[in-house]
Design goal:
Chain A: Its EC number is 6.3.5.-. The complex is a heterotrimer of chains A (about 100), B (about 500) and C (about 500). Chain A is about 35% helix and about 10% strand. The chains are: A alpha+beta (about 100), B alpha/beta (about 500), C alpha+beta (about 500). Chains in contact: A-B, A-C, B-C. The complex binds magnesium ion and zinc ion.
Chain lengths: ~100, ~500, ~500
């Protein structure tokens, strides 16, 4: 398994929306490299013909009827908002695509 | 008087309140006074809801006066891990990113506690987002172990275990993703149960790793844990992963402890390098005790358990990287950098950078890595295969035995700060508890003595198959009774006074 | 948006290249509640009034699947001739976006509920083109952002944005075609016909109103060109959220011309998302991404697999309505109309209204005549949709009945309809209030005819002399005298009879 570079940590941080400081990049690169080096052991089973388990219990088809339940009041919905305006969550300018 | 009240078990307290010997208000006040007296040193609570607790206690007393039916734990105080939402009461999950957040809704578990007339004293300290084994990762400072305040109380639910061990509450709630109920119970000399996955609703429990997280009861006795288990377990239509079956008869089992004729497994992978001598010694004595009590001991080989820790540290971070994406500073919680010069995207990155601690960031990045294209199959995919192998090992084991026993943790409580900069060393604390989370079955930790070398509590882990949680209590109650008889008193009485 | 794009003429583009299209259509289901929570989906509610811990992504909240959402997905899959998965899961698509409360979309990834199907679509001239369907999967919609401070309410130049999460979590079905090849110059027309056919099908299934203008149905147009004779697809562009049938066609056409211009000048197409502009009919490049998207899909651990029982699937299959194309062909035959006329009926949105009018007792020709004539005109004038006019198919049927009985003639019938549309009541009430009955009293008619003959002796003579066509003038006089309330056919009969001429 390849080691984790500072650049890779920077890439991961961008994907995960973490504005890491330069010293953190180095710090985490070392630690992540250690951890990944250790847990990479799981790939020992990669070529075994074993089905994956994504969930501990074999439940299926858990669904609810299409019946309306009470919503929160807008006051409750917005109660934790760092900023609000016109009963909406107020956020800084969005740069992403429309 | 107050001193005697706080030493009572939950079962005794409930009985005295029901009979009128004590009022719920008296009981609550005694515990609030205890918190006032010792929590400055212990730091088990992040928030004490004095008014709410007393109001709930008064309601119980009124109910009793009116002759209305009381719940089995009516008026008994409880310390709630700060990971369950509580309407109108702050919920931080031990993180700065949720500082000041007051949820507009109650978790299902919170609702059930209230409906059972349990008195919620407050919210307890924890590793941030339940990531850790020491409670040192709390953004609000560490919790001390009442046995030795310079040592960790376990984690992530160290606040709950410390509250129990310091007699600030007879009952507590924990959550267990990789051992966060059992490991704190082990190192504080208390009882903690991770029920079968899906037995206790996760609705309103802030998610760390959805396929592993499970809430459960913490107490000072096996019977108390069972009484609480019965209150919080059961199907919840708001949680799609909740089991729609009757709760196993845990209280009945706890009242009828016995291991006579039971087959008890000892897994060869749960010992060796990294295990403290005193821990192994107490564990071996426990196995001897089980034999004396009439159990048949069976040696088991579960080879895939050696890969459990690795699989866990891929699955849990992967799920957490996604679960924690919602903390973006836009709808609730902290917001950093909204000064008119930063975009929403930048504010999100700045908020997450400032709001999350190192361990959380580490796991988010680890999970982001494990799920990213090109690595998914080798890491996340393989980890899920390991999970299948671990389930198979358990299935095979439970064909031969009724329960499995092991040490809960490889070592006793370590000093605060000792492993803070060594994540891998920290992760080893969950070596024995993790396989159960991956497979989804049930497990308990209860005290089995003090390690001779440091006089700190050692936990015995009992593991049962899926939805056979009652077996934990049957075996646990028998072991507990035998130990108390042998020691002449409950283990906690040996803890130094605070 | 002032950058001009080089284009080559459509004909030149098609002379050198073959277009390959992929269409991704998102349909908002018309369920009462959201996909994973019990919040109402009613349109027009105040901001953030239809939200809960689940659809706001509050810490601790968990999703539960809407059974009707799954049922609708299966119905759509079956109607698209798809296989229905025996077992499938939801997955998380991870990316940050302020409209999306959890910062992942609960969607399906490699295990869609429906896959491998096709939809036959009919072009304007009646030709049928088969579009292969890759998959149809379930997912959830995002919230809605309003950009404040910018001149046009767009992102650019905005000082801040306001978020309303009422729409967050509304069930979506995403339907993805396989690459559509071989349509040649008709590719844009195929795109339009496909989306229209899909819309008709969704409506016929009753799972959504699929109103594109309200965002209930949105189309992403993927397009690439390959040199004629080549078999390797070129690099594609993805034009997002095209919101009308006409725009789908225009966007495809524009991209063909743009791609051709780039390729024929030796350039390369960058894989990117593009935006379509209704005003100019052109597309512009979306924000260039610094790094490739990595959605880090993994199975949604908060939900359990969906494993639709085969009996349930068969039950749903048996309950499917007649599909639009089949129905249209049947009706076209029954009504004996041309493909072009049928297309006009469809375009006017009159098909279901005509069928309902026939069901209410009208004959097919009359029902068609009124909806495509008088009523279409009226709708056009008032700028409303046909089905929003203040008249019901049953009322139109009643008018045709009155005409058939001879109680009304066409002219009077038009006045009745005008009255109904003006809110004067039912057809019978309008007839009553406006006094619009055809004069059928033979005595009164005969008197009026006699008067007309007496007043126009020269005309009467011509008719007597065999010039039957001249009767029109006398009919006109009688109609005038009776203020239009006579049955013109009967009047003509009486005139000819009086003048001793055989009709
Ligand atoms: Mg999609
Ligand atoms: Zn909702």
């Amino acid at each position: 398994m390849p080691g984790i570079t500072r650049e890779e940590v920077a890439h991961l941080a961008r994907l995960a929306r973490l504005e890491l400081k330069p010293e953190e990049l180095d710090h985490f690169a070392g630690q992540l490299d250690d951890i990944i080096g250790a847990v990479a052991r799981v790939s020992e089973v990669a070529d075994q013909d074993v089905p994956p388990t994504s969930h501990p219990l074999p439940l299926t088809n858990v669904m609810r009827a299409d019946e309306v339940r009470p919503s929160l009041t807008p006051e409750q919905a917005l109660s934790g908002a760092p900023a609000q305006e016109q009963q909406r969550f107020k956020v800084p300018q969005i740069l992403g695509e429309e | 008087m107050s001193d005697q009240i706080i030493k009572l078990t939950a079962a005794e307290t409930a009985a005295k309140i029901a009979s009128g010997e004590l009022t719920a208000v008296e009981v609550t006040e005694a515990h609030l006074a205890r918190i006032e007296a010792v929590d400055e040193k212990v730091h088990a609570f992040l928030h004490v809801d004095r008014e709410g607790a007393l109001a709930q206690a008064r309601a119980v007393d009124v109910k009793r006066e009116r002759g209305e039916k009381l719940g089995p734990l009516a008026g008994v105080p409880l310390a709630l891990k700060d990971i369950f939402t509580t309407e109108g009461i702050p919920t931080t999950v031990g993180s700065k990113i949720l500082e000041g957040w007051i949820p507009p809704y109650d978790a299902t578990l919170t609702k059930r506690l209230k409906a059972a007339d349990v008195v919620i004293l407050g919210k307890t300290n924890m590793d941030e987002f339940a990531m850790g084994s020491s409670t040192e990762n709390s953004a609000y400072g560490p919790t001390g172990n009442p046995w030795d305040l310079t040592r960790i109380p376990g984690g992530s639910g160290g606040g709950s275990s410390a509250a129990l061990a310091a007699h600030m509450a007879p009952l507590a709630i924990g959550t267990d993703t990789g051992g966060s109920i059992r490991q704190p119970a082990a190192v504080t000399g208390t009882v903690g149960v991770k029920p079968t996955y899906g037995a206790v609703s996760r609705y309103g429990m802030v998610a760390f790793s959805s396929s592993l997280d499970q809430g459960g009861p913490c107490a000072r006795t096996v019977l108390d844990a069972a009484l609480l288990h019965e209150v919080i377990a059961g199907h919840d239509p708001m949680d799609s992963t909740s089991i729609d079956e009757p709760v196993p008869p845990v209280v009945e089992a706890a009242r009828n402890g016995s291991v006579q004729g039971m087959r008890v497994g000892v897994v060869k992978q749960f010992r060796g390098e990294g295990y403290q001598a005193g821990v192994v010694q107490r564990f071996d004595e426990s196995v001897e005790l089980l034999k004396e009590l009439g159990a048949e001991i069976v040696e088991l080989d579960c080879p895939s358990f050696d890969l459990a820790l690795s699989a866990y540290y891929l699955i849990a971070p992967s799920e957490c990287s996604s679960n924690l994406a919602r903390f973006d500073g836009l709808r609730y919680g902290a917001r950093v950098g909204d000064d008119g010069t930063h975009s929403a995207e930048e504010v999100t990155s700045l908020t997450r950078e400032a709001g999350f601690g190192d361990e959380v960031k580490r796991r988010i990045m680890l999970g982001t890595y494990a799920l990213s294209s090109g690595y998914y199959d080798a890491y996340y995919g393989s980890a899920q295969k390991v999970r299948t192998l671990i389930k198979r090992d358990f299935d095979k084991a439970f064909e031969q035995v009724d329960v499995i026993v092991s040490p809960t943790t490889p070592t006793t409580a370590f000093p605060i700060g000792e492993r803070a900069d060594d994540p891998m060393a920290m992760y080893l604390a969950d070596l024995c508890t993790i396989p159960t989370n991956l497979a989804g079955n049930a497990a308990m930790s209860l005290p089995c003595g003090l390690a001779p070398e440091d006089n700190l509590p050692v936990g015995l882990q009992i593991i049962a198959p899926v939805m056979k949680d009652d077996r934990l209590y049957k075996v646990g109650a028998a072991v507990e009774a035998a130990f108390v008889e042998k020691w002449g008193h409950p283990l906690l009485e040996e803890a130094p006074s605070l | 948006m002032t950058t001009t794009t080089d284009l080559v003429s459509y004909e030149d583009a098609l002379a050198s290249y073959d277009p390959v299209m992929g269409l991704e259509v998102h349909v908002e289901l018309g369920t009462k509640t959201k996909m994973f929570c019990g919040c109402s989906t009613t349109l027009g509610a105040g901001p953030n009034t239809q939200t809960c811990p689940v659809c706001l992504g509050l810490p601790g909240a968990l999703p539960v699947v809407n059974a009707t959402g799954v049922e609708s997905a299966i119905k759509i899959g079956l109607a698209l001739n798809c296989e229905i998965a025996e077992w499938c899961r939801f997955a998380r698509k991870n990316y940050f976006y302020p409209d999306m409360p959890k910062n992942f979309q609960t969607s399906q990834y490699d295990e869609p509920i429906a896959f491998n199907g096709y939809l036959d679509v009919q072009l304007e001239d009646g030709e049928v083109f088969r579009v292969e369907i890759e998959r149809a999967h379930m997912e959830e919609d995002t919230g809605k952002s309003t950009h404040v401070g910018g001149a046009t309410g767009r992102i650019h130049g905005a000082s801040h944005s306001l978020l309303d999460y009422n729409r967050a979590g509304i069930p979506l079905i995403e339907i993805v075609t396989k690459p559509i090849t071989g349509a040649g110059e008709r590719a844009p027309e195929v795109a339009r016909a496909y989306v229209r056919e899909l819309r008709e099908l969704i409506r016929a299934l009753g799972v959504s109103e699929a109103r594109m203008e309200m965002g209930q149905m949105r189309c992403d147009v993927n397009l690439s060109l390959m040199p004629k004779g080549a078999d390797k697809f070129g690099t594609r562009s993805e034009t997002k959220n095209v919101n009308s049938l006409r725009s789908v066609e225009r966007a495809a056409r524009f991209e063909i011309q743009r791609h051709a211009a780039v390729l024929s000048s030796g350039g390369t197409i960058v894989q990117e998302t593009r935006h379509f502009h209704e005003d100019t009919g052109s597309t512009t490049s979306g924000r260039v991404k610094e790094e490739a998207e990595d959605y880090r899909y993994f199975p949604e651990p908060d939900l359990v697999p969906v494993a639709p029982a085969r009996e349930w699937v068969e039950e749903l299959r048996a309950g499917l309505p007649e599909l639009p194309l089949v129905r249209r062909n049947r009706l076209r035959e029954e009504w004996d109309v041309s493909a072009t006329d049928m297309q006009a009926i469809l375009n006017a949105g009159a098909l279901d209204l005509i069928v309902a009018t026939i069901d209410a007792g009208a004959d097919a020709a009359s029902a068609r005549k009124w909806w495509m004539g008088e009523l279409a005109r009226s709708a056009n004038e008032s700028g409303t949709a046909l089905d929003e006019l203040a008249i019901t198919p049953a009322q139109v049927a009643r008018v045709t009945e009155l005409v058939a009985k001879g109680d009304l003639n066409d002219k009077l019938a038009r006045q009745v309809i005008e009255g109904v549309l003006a809110g004067e009541g039912t057809p019978d009430e309008v007839v009553e209030k406006r006094g619009l009955k055809v004069v059928s009293d033979e005595g009164a008619l005969t008197a009026a005819v006699d008067e007309a003959i007496a007043g126009n002796p020269a005309v009467a003579d011509k008719i007597r002399g065999g010039k039957v066509a001249a009767a029109g003038a006398l009919v006109g006089a009688v109609m005038k005298a009776t203020r239009g309330q006579a049955d013109a056919a009967r009047v003509k009969e009486l005139i000819l009879q009086k003048l001793g001429v055989e009709g």
